[in-house]
Design goal:
The chain has two helices and 32 strands. The protein has 459 residues and is mostly beta strands.
């Protein structure tokens, strides 16, 4: 029986001159003395050793004269023994008992070698709640995130691959990676800064998406582990050279993943440049709170703290207008299931639109302040994920292009709507919309961005 009194898991444990035994109690006294091997007390609480316990002295019989002295000693010994038992018993309802505290840790291992011979490292973070995150240097990517449900059962809630070959394949849909230099789309792959036009790679129809053909998701980053008072962390660094994928300026970045002991996965971004450029970094995990590969996410309940979204054309480029969510299937100001109105969203598979949510919501951002952006709950497991950020937008995507052709971890096949993304960011195509919050970064300035995915084990 493990407790503050120092008792062990044993049905017969010494404690000073007292012995705890789980034999059924009985009390016998004599006028001439008290034999303590027969003296017993009841423990009215639930103990690890059993529901009933007996305390006796280990020193042998105690001889005292007179029934008064006998009764007095019996009462004193009974009271002392009861106090020991109270100190050593668990009086807490198991339903409300605090969870076992796990020692936080950071473990480094190999995740293989890229096709061009670069070593890829993996870092596994474990916090004091037993939550576990695995990150790799390829793309500064989150490959696993093990989160408990209300019963304490852990499940990996992000889609991904088991080896580096999976992440390198051409049709990897940005699972868990850091995207940039510009996350989301830039119209016609062009933008201008101070009158100079820059042309980028076109990799999404006529547009530029997520940094181009070889974005940050396909770079091997440097990494260093870091223990903080909040929890274990890994700091990823990478410098994108001037002209990389058509972008001006050498961009030096630092992305820190911290798995806090409050069950938050916090991502802090920093970047500086030696020449005016544009930057918009985000995290691209596909979540399924029931567990990766465990069916679609249409039953997940979503709330998004946004009253409007950026209206887009047929290629998902913003028109410059904001559309109110009221009266539309895009309204998540009150909790609603993902699948409840998804069929109301226009689709045209022949034109590359399979149907589903893929839009940027306009958040009530306050500069420098991290706000609550969204909440998602899976009714089947009770897991809840909150999203917090200081960015002005959040892209909600429901895995519309997953089509069953990808096999992920544990041999799970990922079909349409098997995961959702909530990507905190600036608006799409901001470099071509001066009315949007600026994404231009100049020398001497520092780009910062915080995104927090907080997990709660509901019922």
């Amino acid at each position: 029986m493990s407790n503050s009194a120092g008792l062990a898991h044993d049905s017969n444990v010494e404690f000073r001159n007292l012995k705890l035994s789980t034999h059924r109690p009985g009390l016998k006294t004599q006028d001439a003395g008290l034999r303590t091997q027969d003296l017993s007390v009841y423990c009215p609480f639930t103990c690890a050793a059993g529901p009933l316990a007996r305390v006796t002295t280990a020193a042998g019989p105690v001889q005292k004269r007179g029934s008064i002295m006998t009764a007095f000693l019996a009462r004193v010994l009974s009271l002392c023994a009861a106090l020991v038992l109270v100190a050593g018993c668990n009086t807490t309802d198991p339903q409300t008992a605090p969870k076992k505290v796990t020692a936080m840790s950071i473990t480094k291992s190999s995740f293989g070698t890229t096709a061009d011979g670069k070593e890829v490292d993996a870092y596994t973070l474990v916090n004091t709640q037993g939550t576990k995150a695995k990150l790799i240097t390829y793309g500064a990517t989150l490959t696993e995130l093990w989160v408990a449900d209300g019963s304490g059962n852990l499940a990996d809630v992000v889609l991904g691959f088991s080896d580096i070959a999976g992440y390198e394949q051409a049709n990897n849909p940005y699972f868990g990676c850091t995207t940039g230099r510009y996350a989301n789309r830039i119209a016609k792959a062009k933008f201008s800064i101070d009158g100079t036009e820059y042309t980028l790679a076109t990799n999404n129809g006529p547009n530029h998406l997520h940094g181009g053909k070889v974005g940050f998701n396909r770079k091997v980053w440097s990494a260093s582990p870091k223990e903080t008072s909040e929890g274990p962390a890994v700091v990823f660094t990478h410098t994108s050279p001037d002209g990389d994928e058509g972008y001006p300026g050498a961009l030096s970045m630092e992305v820190t993943y911290t798995l806090t002991n409050s069950n938050e996965l916090r991502i802090d971004y920093k970047a500086t440049t030696d020449k005016a450029t544009v930057v918009n970094l985000t995290h691209h995990s596909y979540f399924n709170l029931a567990g990766q590969g465990e069916g679609d996410i249409l039953g997940h309940e979503v709330t998004i703290n946004a009253e409007s979204f950026t209206a887009v054309d047929e290629t998902l480029i913003p028109t410059g207008k904001f559309t109110a969510v009221t009266g539309t299937p895009y309204d998540f100001t009150r909790s609603a299931t993902i699948g409840g109105r998804i069929k109301q969203i226009p689709s045209d598979p022949a034109k590359g639109n399979p149907g589903g949510y893929d839009l940027n919501y306009v958040l009530p951002a306050e500069e420098g302040k991290v706000i609550h952006a969204a909440t998602v709950r899976d009714p089947s497991s009770g897991r809840v994920m909150e999203v917090w950020t200081d960015e002005p937008g959040i892209q909600f995507y429901t895995g519309n292009f997953l089509d069953g052709t990808l096999t992920g971890k544990e041999g799970k096949v990922y079909k349409k709507h098997f995961g959702f993304c909530l990507e905190t960011q600036h608006y799409p195509d901001s470099p071509n919309h001066p009315e949007f919050p600026s994404t231009t970064l100049k020398p001497g300035e520092t780009y910062t961005h915080t995104c927090v995915y907080k997990f709660v084990a509901g019922r």
